Fold:
Amino acid sequence: MRQLSKNDSDRLRALATQYGTPAYAYDAEIIRRQYQRLESAFSASNAKIRFAMKALSNPAVLSLLADLGSGVDAVSIGEVRLALHAGIPSSDISFTPSLPPIEVVQQAIDLGVHVTVDSLSLLEKFGRTFGSEVPCSLRINPHIKAGANKKVQTGHKKSKFGISVDFVERAADLVSNYGIKVVGLHVHTGSDVADAEIFVRSAEVLFAAAELFEDVEIFDLGGGFKVAYRFGENDADVELIGAKCAQIREQYIQRSGRRAEIWLEPGKYLVSASGCLLAEATTVKKSPAVTFVGVDTGLNHLIRPMFYDAYHEIENISNPSGVPQKYTVVGNICETDTFAKDRMLPEVREGDLLVFRSAGAYGFTMASQFNSHPRPPEILVDAEESRLIRRRETFEDLLTAYA
Ligand code: PLP
Structure:
């Protein structure tokens, strides 16, 4: 990851003037580049990509990805309906909810999407309700700790996600009792995973489990490919991961004589780098120990630093050659919403435009109206064009749902 070029900074300053701050801006070209790199890294196994839309659910972004050939992974009925609204065919949508009641699964099936079952309790209800009529996938918890940040690990033994790999035989018994048609196995060990071996070990767990399920031909390896958040850092080596996964898929096909279609569910990898949050420095406040920069946004618009201890590079594009000084950058919410502690930035003056980088994933989608601040707009930049893909909310939007 690199600092913004002068061209990019000029462009972002123009966007801030046109659309105001705070605002999310996404670069379509970066989304296309990331998609194509991942697709080509997994070309040997002809993997199908289903974008984890929880990362960025704006319909304009979903249809941009659909034009490239992507499907969608949705986790709520709201996401399924948003994807359908964006024009994604139901056959390209998977539904991977966390611990849903059977009524929600029924709604998803009525909408025509492919369901992944994540507990034995749901599997039993699924069998009782649908028998062999509706194919499904099973999410397996492989008991693998992945990535450095505990807050985004989902495949370890104590995680709520998936059916424990220790219980796969119990799942197979339910499947045979009810005649359930399990066509896919799914795994997702978490976010920020750089180590190719994690993907290999997860895939091996699925290939081994497939022996118990005769209809399985889809192997969904999830998402979680690490992306760069700091200058000098790189994304996960998806070429290496893709090559290793292709190799073990081939071995599985050779030894089992069965089909194996690979699915991926990347979120961050496709959209993180494309996005930034533009904010104005509204206050520079010196206390005896700290110089604070207060901005016109807060944890209500970008919660990752507070929720995940995530690091986002911040650039002062109004004064890039200012003398570097140490600042603590904080939001305008009545909570301790610290974006960056003791960060060296070129001198920040009130009114300067700050850019929070790598904010395309889990930025806007996790935004709220906390403290009754409306949510910011989203802008899509494509080559020389920019367009508003979600307008800035207003006070009237805050009122819409009240009785
Ligand atoms: N698939 C599932 C089931 C997930 O829960 C997530 C993230 O929470 C993803 C895919 C996408 O993860 P990432 O954005 O790290 O690629």
Notes: The chain has two domains: 6-23+274-399, 42-271.
